[in-house]
Design goal:
The strands form 2 sheets. Strands 1-2 form a two-stranded antiparallel ribbon. A two-stranded antiparallel ribbon has the order 3-4. Strand 3 and strand 4 form a beta hairpin. Helix content is 62%, strand content 13%. The chain has 5 helices and 4 strands.
Length: 126
C-alpha cells in the first residue's frame, strides 16, 4: 500500500504557517478599522471633536503582543459621554451614557466570527 500527496500537504501547511501571522495581523487591523467606523457612527455630535478623535493603533508597540489592536479616544470627556455623568452639584440629576463604544463592540462581535470563518476559510482554500 502506497500513500501519496503528503509532500503537497506538507507544502500547503508550510505556506499556511508562514502566511497566517501576516494575514491575522491584517485581519485584526481591518476589524479594528470597522469597529472605529461603527463607533464614529454611534458617537453623538455637538462640535464633532469627540467623533473625529477616535483612533486605532497597533497594540504591538504599546503592549508587546503581536495580535493586538486598540481603538481609543483621547478627548477628556469621552468617558463621561460613554458612561454618563452627574449635572453640577446636584445628587439627583444625571445624564445617561450613550454607550457608543460598548454598543459598537457588541455589534462587531457578532460580525467578527462570521468574518473570521470567511477569512480563514479562504486562506485554507488557497
Amino acid at each position: 500500500m502506497e500513500l501519496k500527496g503528503f509532500k503537497e500537504l506538507d507544502k500547503i501547511l508550510d505556506e499556511i504557517k508562514t502566511q497566517t501571522p501576516k494575514s491575522t495581523e491584517r485581519f485584526l487591523m481591518l476589524q479594528a478599522e470597522e469597529l472605529k467606523k461603527d463607533v464614529k457612527d454611534l458617537t453623538p455630535v455637538d462640535t464633532g471633536t469627540l467623533k473625529n478623535s477616535w483612533q486605532r493603533e497597533n497594540g504591538k508597540r504599546l503592549t508587546g503582543k503581536k495580535f493586538t489592536q486598540i481603538v481609543f479616544n483621547m478627548t477628556d470627556y469621552a468617558a463621561h459621554v460613554e458612561y454618563g455623568h452627574r449635572i453640577g452639584r446636584s445628587k439627583t440629576k444625571f445624564v445617561r451614557g450613550r454607550f457608543m463604544l460598548r454598543t459598537a463592540v457588541a455589534m462587531r462581535q457578532i460580525k467578527f466570527y462570521k468574518d473570521l470563518k470567511n477569512f480563514y476559510g479562504g486562506l485554507i482554500k488557497k
